Amino acid sequence: xxxxxxxxxxxxxxxxLLAFVASNIYIFARGVQTIPHFPVWTKWAIGIIYWxxxxxxxxxxxxxxxxxxxxxGHTLFEIGTGWxxxxxxxxxxxxxxxxxxxxxxxxxxxFIPALTLVICVLAYGxxxxxxxxxxxxxxxxxxxxxxxxxxxxxSDVHLGLGTxxxxxxxxxxMINAQQPDVILISGDLIDNSIVPVRNQRMAEELNQLRAxxxxxxxxxxxxxISGIDDCVQYIAQTPIRVLRDETVTLPNGVQIVGRDxxxxxxxxxxxxxxQDISHEQPIIMLDHQPVEIVQAVEAxxxxxxxxxxxxxxxxxxxxxxxxxxxxxxxxxxxxxxxxYVSSGLALWGPPFRIGTQSEMIVxxxxx
Length: 367
Hints:
Blueprint: H1 2-32, H2 40-63, H3 70-103, H4 111-130, E1 133-140, E2 149-154, H5 165-176, E3 182-185, H6 195-199, H7 203-206, E4 215-217, H8 221-226, H9 228-235, E5 240-242, E6 246-249, E7 255-258, H10 270-274, E8 283-286, H11 293-298, E9 303-306, H12 317-324, E10 330-334, E11 337-341, E12 359-366
Parallel strand pairs: 1-12, 2-3, 3-4, 4-5, 7-8, 8-9, 9-11
Antiparallel strand pairs: 2-12, 6-7, 10-11
Helix pairs in contact: 1-2, 1-3, 2-3, 3-4
């Protein structure tokens, strides 16, 4: 069964790679049609630059555990992953123009208008990614044993070649400005490897986080991709405490339950994590992937905080996540359980937010 699953994943990536290459051949061919009178050397130069950008995402996986500098690594990462979305939008734009030309043969060549529109959309998406919003949510939990609490909740920071140290500093300042009682991180603090995190000494910035009752996080699937033991060992150098199927009780009585990620197949169920703790006191659960919401509600969780989905990051992928997950983004209430699935403070891969928003959540919880 496990071998069959690996084979299916392998076939999926082969199909996606072939589709990506075919799409870039289509875009490149259409682009060459717009420069028939350019000198041959110019066409060769454009071709080399184009295909370097198109295939640069391969180098990301080759160098993700190397000692490549943060500047070059970050640049290569943004070009390589960004090109994936460039390809998607260019194919959509050119396809739309080609469809229109079927009914209007006099329409001029469409490559330049399509390229201009895509560049504008990507510039907008990059701006949205670089300017996360702060969303304040007031929650009233029907338990009177605890004092009110201010929680800053983040997820999916993806530290590494994508989110570099300078960006992390901005996030830390943004979090500390809220003067939270507690900071909760619902997974994927690390991206694809711990190596660039170490190389950039990001623990120096993480050590600047401040919260009266502490900082807690749960692993995400990317901590497992990066090597869970290495990630936990590195994070131990910071004020952040990693909860893996563990519960901590804050001085004001609030109980923080941290689930291990779904990547760990032997993780405990929500009911097993809450059966031995007080249901008279508030229960806040962190779970990276929002895949067992019903079980959390049945286990008596008062507030469930998740991440992972990124809300698709870019349209139309947000439609996909909406169909994949019961709750793919935002706030809902099921019975007595408040649920929030964050789109993430940063993101994975392509540096764009199109139709979605990078965000930090501030929960004002009263009892």
